[in-house]
Design a protein that fits this description.
Length: 433
């Protein structure tokens, strides 16, 4: 009952024990049932043979076939990435689910819920739930959403949590009048929409701040800090004009590529998964590495050559081993490590490197191409000033991004708690709905 204090809504007048741990006390007029007693049918899906082309067709040309990937995009499904043909349906014995069927994930993304907005079928990881006259589609949707945490306690697990039809059928659920179900569903439709709008605004704010961060870095490392400085044509199309007193040198004259192999023993390992895209922050992982890597030292700059558009660049703050698809660069005496980091992670530099990649599935940039890249080379003291300025300004932006992420986390927690409180009767929303 403490959960009520989080909301401005009053509780029901009287409660009684439900006998179900996750439900707790429920309003006095409610009953407890099982999911199977409010369903006309529970329908399992399947996957026709993928090596038979006549089983499948382009989206929109057959019957939509729902996978977990489709449910992750939208909770109302009218089209899917892949459609099945009549031949595929007959071969696998699939049932076509009517519009309005609730789709419920029992593998992988456990407990995810979606609504069929057209006739469709599903794979074996998704059940189709067709409600009977005792429960509304809308209330059952929100009830299933609220169960997402509970289902992990009843799932079987080898390598991942799974449910089956029997376990789903026997979920304990509250049973209440249809009018009350409608009131709760209408309330949650309205209130969650408000929260979702706030979440979307915070997500958009994060996008704008990230764009601002990238633009700030690219402009500053190529144009400097003085807006009134005399400029000159760099002779390089992607660089454009640079301050008149700057030089432009090939990367290999500013940074030396390290190639010395070293055995992975007790050294700190830095691989691509340890580097956050576009910020260069270190991400600890529990991965176990074996073999050899490239010895890197404090102030070296590492550049991810696999899928360079991810902008995985890292400035070493200690001796370590660079493992995998990372190029290790030692700044020479004329080039500051801190400035080199911002230069290599700048959107301007990344775009050019990315345009040079080879390999369709695993695009990589070659060290030979990168070594020949022309780099703006300010005087050494100006490099340090630029790096110090970017340290300060990006830290401010990162703080704002962090606050936006925290706001999203709190909003999602409130959304989850509000849904749970409403469908379990901890708050009385009949009047507010």
């Amino acid at each position: 009952m403490n959960q009520i204090k989080k909301f401005r809504y009053k509780p029901y007048p009287k409660y009684k024990p439900s006998g179900v741990e996750w439900l707790g006390d429920v309003p006095e007029g409610w009953n407890i049932s099982k999911l199977k007693y409010v369903l006309m049918s529970i329908i399992a899906g399947g996957t026709p043979k993928t090596d038979k082309p006549n089983n499948w067709c382009e989206s929109g040309d057959g019957v939509p076939w729902v996978s977990i990937a489709d449910m992750s995009i939208n909770h109302i499904i009218s089209k899917t990435k892949k459609d099945v043909t009549l031949n595929g349906i007959l071969e696998k014995g699939l049932k076509v689910l009517p519009k309005g069927t609730l789709l419920y994930s029992i593998f992988a993304s456990l407990g995810k819920v979606a609504i069929a907005d057209t006739k469709l079928t599903t794979n074996q990881a998704i059940l189709g739930l067709v409600p009977n006259k005792n429960i509304t589609n809308e209330f059952l949707y929100w009830l299933l959403v609220s169960l997402e945490k509970y289902v992990h306690f009843v799932a079987s697990s080898n390598t991942q949590d799974n449910l089956n039809m029997e376990k789903v059928a026997n979920f304990p659920i509250p049973l209440l009048s249809k009018n009350e179900q409608t009131a709760i569903a209408n309330f949650l439709d309205r209130e969650t929409a408000k929260i979702d709008t706030l979440i979307a605004k915070q997500e958009r704010l994060i996008e704008l701040l990230q764009e601002k961060r990238q633009a700030l870095i690219s402009h500053t490392v190529t144009k400097g800090l003085d807006p009134n400085v005399r400029m000159k044509d760099s002779g390089i199309e992607w660089l454009g004009e640079v301050p008149e007193h700057w030089e432009v040198k090939k990367l290999k004259f500013n940074l030396r590529l390290r190639t010395e192999k070293s055995k992975i023993e007790k050294h700190k390992i830095i691989a691509l998964e340890n580097i956050e895209s576009k910020t260069g922050k270190y991400i600890p992982t529990e991965s176990i590495y074996q073999g050899e890597g490239i010895a890197c030292y404090c102030n070296d700059v590492l550049f991810g050559k696999l899928r360079p558009y991810l902008a995985k660049v890292y400035r070493c703050n200690e001796n370590a081993i660079a493992f995998g698809d990372l190029l290790t660069y030692q700044p020479l005496t004329n080039y500051k490590s801190s400035y080199a980091f911002y230069m290599l992670i700048s959107e301007t530099f990344i775009k050019i490197v990315n345009s040079s990649t080879y390999g369709a599935k695993m695009p990589r940039a070659g060290a030979d191409f990168i070594n020949e890249m022309p780099l703006p080379t300010p005087p050494i003291d100006e490099q340090q000033q630029i790096a110090d300025y970017l340290d300060t300004q990006t830290a401010k932006i990162d703080t704002l991004i962090k606050k936006a992420h925290q706001a999203i986390k709190l909003l999602k927690e409130r959304r989850e708690a509000l849904i749970s409180a409403a469908v379990t009767g901890k708050i009385d929303v009949r009047e507010s709905a």
